[in-house]
Amino acid sequence: MFHGWLPLFPVLLTLALPVRAAVVPATDLESPYTADSRAHAINSAGQIAIEGSFEFFPYGGAAVLLPPHPGGTVMWLECVEEDCFQEAIGPEDIAPDGRVVGTHYRLRVTWPATWSPTGALTDLVFLYGTSVIPPNAAEGINSSGTIVGTLQEVDGPRYPTRWEDAQASPETLPNDGPSLGPFPKAINDAGIIVGHTDGVIPYAAIWIPNGGYQLSSLPLLPSGSHARAKDINDAGQVVGTADDGTAFETAVLWEPLGGGVYLAVALPRLAAGQDCEATGINDIGHAVGRCTDGVGVQRGIVWSVVAPAVLHELEPLPGATELTVRDVNDQGVAVGWSWSSTSDWDTAVLWAYSTEPVPALPGWGSLLLASVLLWTSVRIALARSRSKPPGFG
Description:
Blueprint: H1 9-16, E1 22-24, E2 27-28, E3 37-42, E4 48-52, E5 62-65, E6 74-76, E7 88-94, E8 100-106, E9 109-115, E10 121-123, E11 137-141, E12 147-152, E13 158-163, E14 171-172, E15 183-187, E16 193-196, E17 204-209, E18 213-217, E19 227-232, E20 238-243, E21 249-258, E22 261-266, E23 276-281, E24 286-292, E25 298-304, E26 309-314, E27 322-328, E28 333-340, E29 345-352, H2 363-387
Parallel strand pairs: 1-26
Antiparallel strand pairs: 2-29, 3-4, 4-5, 5-6, 7-8, 8-9, 9-10, 11-12, 12-13, 13-14, 15-16, 16-17, 17-18, 19-20, 20-21, 21-22, 23-24, 24-25, 25-26, 27-28, 28-29
Helix pairs in contact: 1-2
């Protein structure tokens, strides 16, 4: 009597069960470097800021890879010395128009710097002398060209810093005292800045513009003691890492509730008792980072932050054992690098994933839904069989 309904059960079960996160392979960016290469940032135009080195030559400068990838044009970022001799460049962020910010090390000084969309170098203004190697850095830039980072006095303290543009004098942001931080990591188009303190028990920080800047700490996870904010999107959503009272790091989303109030939400792990970190977020609600899986292997992750779930797992290159995911754009392209123990080199890579929503019900919820659907179909079949006239099959 169930022959009309029971064949539908596998279909119903398939619809009810969660779709497993898609596995996305890494694509070698085929950078111009012959040794290490690392992709640090990508913008909405698909321009990728990378740095690396050449075999037997430690300083390789930095470049922007223009699409298509791989195989597009390489635009080198300007150095002062010919062939970037004894110069190291560390790009940290790239604006929508192609402006790059980062660090520029030469003459025993680390300069905060910016490069134009054509690769022209501008050292940012700083006021603290040039006799030692202070950890000066430009970390983030928004579409208006406002830059955030860190400046240190010669043999003195560090301060969180903001530059209105590439020619502006530095503005010291509110902080906890000399060298105590917090220190900025990113800025969005509304001018909101996020970062964290250093040390054994760091806290995640946010600077909100309000006729100046107001410094606040972002909330901890329940039972947690520390946190680090790494990135912010234009909706004000912040991602980073935090602890939840265990010995393991957790990828975390800070969701804005309005009025400068934020809610800390743990992003799903791949396996219990393993570390996770979130390092970037785009404007369509996807965060990226990495987790360790149940057998101790690192996997890159794309999370949905709308309804927190793992959307995609990102693989390292074949033969590689570790990876780092640094940034993601709104077109569903994440960048970072993959490390191989065979060569002992990092290789700049990208992961191109589908931005279509992926249903991901929790396992217990899926089984419960499947059971309800089965029970409902059986009840309907029973009711119909009882209502048929005698003699009907």
